């Protein structure tokens, strides 16, 4: 009995000592401004991380079987991986910026540039760097040009072809990089002078040309607008790449816009960029990346059911779909070889009411802007979307028959039709598998202007 009491007293004494030591340690930590930080367990459907250690420096832990990038508050960017799983954490997964579209116009010992502003997600671009090289794909020398969207590079050698890129930065880190664009500075044309009554000599006038290079959708029709008027159309290759050239332009400032139409007749958003054209110079516009089209299979969906979100983009592109609710949701999917993508989105995470979805594409190091938005309603029943009905002769399905439709038809005049345009011709023109004067007569009849 005495032994048990002695043991109890000893235990109580040890407990008091431990409490006292703990209290002293807390006071010591507080005196140095150090406070304990609590880390809670977090989990997924396949694993639980218990008692995570918060590392303010956000360093990297590793073993022979996995890598794990630790984080402060689970916000540090990084990716952990092993042979069995990959875990993405922090803003790195979705923090992206659109790729600038750059144009270069040659001058006398100089090249003038304009580019579209790079738009960031979860952040803002604070600076641009211009890279210069003397060979394609070569080593670029970069210089800071500030948070601007135009710049003139001087001190160049006439007759030498240079290659340029623009990098967008946020907080000193590169978040986007343009495609490469080339330009060759040229001396002004020598108009000559009179001499000995023999008359002056004028060198041949150099053409004023603007070239557009970019990506759309495989075999899609691309339409180029100049100051809101159709200037040219072309068809993308099977790899979705396209090129359009405009010549015999007058010097001046223009607003160019470009769009494409997918195999279902859905039209992309307009990509617009201002360009200053110099007489006798060639301007190259590179890195155009037309945003994906988007559509849904239901105008209203019963909460908890799936809604199909689909569209078309570049072949094998990674598609990011954003669904706006009280909380914004992001899902990723991949386009197939024809550029077609599909995601069956689970609406159980959405609130009742109206929602909007949009998508963007990424391929290699290029990222498009978000395209058009499409709306749907989450409710208590499901209503399928009705296919949009395009009127006779309305080739771009905008509810009007005007010069845009005429330009599209003119492109296919006496040419072999693509598979997608065969469907349009069958439904909205003469349905004889070709474009000829009969089709233009139909357009004239339905003309709205």
TrEMBL record:
Gly residues bias: where? 191-201
List the source organism. Candidatus Staskawiczbacteria bacterium RIFCSPHIGHO2_01_FULL_39_25
Residue intervals of the Dockerin domain: 388-449
Q: Which GO terms describe its biological process?
A: polysaccharide catabolic process
Q: Where is the Fibronectin type-III domain?
A: 97-189
Which intervals of the chain are annotated as region Disordered? 179-201
Q: Which domain of life is it from?
A: Bacteria
Origin organism lineage: Bacteria, Candidatus Staskawicziibacteriota
The protein's name: Fibronectin type-III domain-containing protein
